[in-house]
Automatic annotation (TrEMBL):
Pfam families: ADH_N (PF08240), ADH_zinc_N (PF00107). PANTHER family: ALCOHOL DEHYDROGENASE, ALCOHOL DEHYDROGENASE CLASS-3. GO terms for molecular function: S-(hydroxymethyl)glutathione dehydrogenase [NAD(P)+] activity; zinc ion binding. It comes from the Bacteria. Signal peptide: none annotated. Its cofactor is Zn(2+). The keyword Transmembrane helix does not apply. This is NAD(P)-dependent alcohol dehydrogenase. Keywords: Metal-binding, NAD, Oxidoreductase, Plasmid, Zinc. Residues 11-364 form the Enoyl reductase (ER) domain.
Length: 367
């Protein structure tokens, strides 16, 4: 049993409170990490609004990096001292996991959203009462987190550990969608709607793959400037343009090969479909809640167009995070440009900045 200082989530729409909790003992397949950094992802904000049926009190946070402090009895692949990035959890044994698609693990919801281990126990407690952890198999808004050996990816100790956590969710979601789902090739065209961490990661991946043109669409002028710096060939402000589809075909005749919707609003999904050439693929990634009806034109889809949803970039983090690290080392995935750091006592400020969009990727860092 050890202690952790965490940002406790006690009620929807209330500020988190920084308190001490007890952690452990570890189950046989678990590890405890000392958190070096943890990103704030929009799915955390959705949970903090009460948009996910997570039992409370709980600790959220699911983009951690850190150093392994202790491992459970059956853990053989990690040892104390290892540097890790912690991604989403998956069972590693079901049909989807064994075919390389753990983002569609048959136990995904139970392992990532329910706030307990599969046996109903919790990884943390406070004054003898359960504190719900296991959020994305980690609950890492704190100094220490319990993860499983399945979702911790070992990384090289020479890397800037504090900044690596977002590779485990938002960055792999955007990049994985372009590299592993759309499988874009050099010279193919792409439009990216919504320039948060997910959209900008999709854009950086498209640039790394040699896509052109790369059209970035967002109402925020600072983000359009950053998109240009990161490789966008064209930028569009939807508030300044009546017809996005027309503007895109003006840049890329007949439309684009691929579009990525990193917003999730009906109007944006409709635009992301409207800009496609025939055939073409639109990937929708933005989460606006578990129920989000949209109307689309079947006549438009019939022309060989595809609309697909993607979770976590449909990647296996154990393979994909090392690839993103290699791209970063070559200067082709400069995700550090999206990050601003905060300390744990500043977490409510960091959450507000993420919600307002004034910071693309806040990361809480620890000494
Ligand atoms: Zn599985
Ligand atoms: Zn996330």
């Amino acid at each position: 049993m050890t202690h952790a200082r965490v940002a406790l989530f006690e009620a929807p729409d209330e500020k988190l409170t920084v308190v001490d909790v007890q952690v452990g003992p570890l189950a046989e397949d678990e590890i405890r990490i000392r958190v070096a950094g943890v990103g704030i992802c929009h799915t955390d904000l959705t949970a903090l609004r009460g948009g996910v049926p997570l039992p409370l009190p709980a600790v959220v946070g699911h983009e951690a990096s850190g150093i392994v402090e202790e491992v459970g009895a059956e853990v053989t692949t990690l040892v104390p001292g290892d540097h890790v990035v912690v991604s989403f959890d998956s069972c590693r044994t079901c049909t989807q996991c064994t075919s390389g698609r753990p983002a569609y693990c048959e136990l995904f919801a139970a392992l990532n959203y329910f706030g307990t281990r599969l046996d109903g126990s919790t990884t943390m407690s406070r004054d003898g009462e359960p504190v719900h952890g296991n959020w994305f198999g980690q609950s890492s808004f704190g100094t220490h987190a319990v993860a499983s050996v399945r979702n911790a990816v070992k990384v090289d100790e020479s890397l800037p550990l504090q900044l690596l956590g977002p590779l485990g969710c938002s960055l792999q979601t955007g990049a994985g969608t372009v590299m592993r789902v759309l499988r874009a090739k050099p010279g193919q065209s792409i439009a990216v709607f919504g320039l948060g961490a997910v959209g900008l990661s999709a854009l950086m991946a498209a640039k790394a793959l040699g896509c052109t043109p790369i059209i970035a669409i967002d109402p925020n002028p600072e983000r359009l400037n950053l998109a240009t710096e990161l490789g966008a060939t064209h930028t569009l402000d939807p508030n300044a343009i009546d017809d996005i589809a027309w503007a895109v075909t003006d840049i890329s005749a007949n439309g684009v090969d691929f579009s990525v919707d990193a917003v999730g609003l009906e109007s944006v999904v409709q635009q992301a479909l409207a800009v496609l050439r025939s055939p073409g693929i639109c990937a929708t990634l933005g989460l606006q809640g578990l129920e989000n009806d949209i109307v689309i034109d079947q006549g438009h889809l019939l022309l060989g167009r595809t609309l697909t949803g993607v979770i976590e970039g449909d990647v296996d983090p154990h393979q994909f995070i090392p690839q993103l690290v290699d791209l970063w080392k070559k200067g082709q995935f400069p995700f550090d440009k999206l990050i601003e750091t905060y300390t744990l006592p500043e977490i409510n400020e960091a959450l507000a900045a993420a919600a307002a969009g004034s910071v693309i990727k806040p990361v809480i860092v620890f000494d």
